[in-house]
Amino acid sequence: MHRLLLFISCLAFFSCGKQAKESKENSENNKETVIEALPIQRQATMILDTTLARKLSKEEMTSIFTDKRQIQLGISNQVYQAYTYKDESGEYYLLLTDYMKAVTDEKDTLYGNVYGLNLTKRNNQFKKRSTIKGEIDDAWETSIGFWNQYSQLTDIDNDGLVDPLIVYGTTTQSMYKDGKVRIIVYNKKKRVTIKHQNSEISDGRLTRIHKNFYNFPMQIQNTVIEKMKLMEKNGHAVFAEGWEDAMKNKATRLEKN
To answer: Are 172 and 179 in contact (CB under 8 A)?
Structure first.
């Protein structure tokens, strides 16, 4: 009888231990990985090929882009950064502007829209080459800004021409979890945009890639993919599972199956 009771006690002990271990493993497997997002620095400088591009000082920016010239160019927001770059095709300027919407009780500045302006300069005359516009959706987004830590002015494909790559994104009450991201990349006279929605809001988590992106040189495609991987690592974007393989197959939509 004593042996039987001892056997039952041991069996119950090991059974409870196994259940506890399985419960812990299941809990760890089901636990969502939470990445604490690194802050986006509004005044961060883009990645630059310093043999081709440079950032203008405040004094240069004020001197070249006077109030009168900004009015002529149709700029209404504050110009807070400006870059110049020169390659085999000519001389260019990139202006970054945004509109301050509000300052919160916590002293955080919120922005309602961004406007980027790419200019050519010939014979001391400026001409619009392209523009980048973005604004928040007041229904759930709180702020917007250029993400310069992902942007760059470099000759990515080594053809003697700068390939501007510009990124901007939004935040919500949940910061980056529900926001959107835009990646704009140029090659020669062509431009494509990758549009990403982080959350289940609107159309759900979805990335739309313009089909012409896959006509760009592989160096540019790979650079964009590396930026996207870095955004995930830094907690600024979450792309659909298997997105890298999907892009290898030239997918134009990355979404949940």
So the answer is: yes
Distances (CA, A) of 40 to 14, 34, 175, 185, 214: 51, 18, 11, 20, 29
Rounded Cα–Cα distance for residues 223 and 220 (Å): 5
Q: How far is the C-alpha of 191 from the C-alpha of 219, rounded, in Å?
A: 15
Q: How far apart are CA 193 and CA 104, in angstroms?
A: 32
The pLDDT tens digits for 210-251 are 999 999 999 999 999 999 999 999 999 999 999 999 999 999
Retrieve residue 164's tokens: 């501007």
Q: Give the three-state DSSP class for 99.
A: strand
Residue 107: phi and psi, rounded to 5, are 70, 20
Q: What is the number of other CB atoms lying within 10 angstroms of the CB of residue 173?
A: 9
Residue 71 in 3-state DSSP?
helix
Residues 6+ apart with CB under 8 A from 232: 35, 238, 239
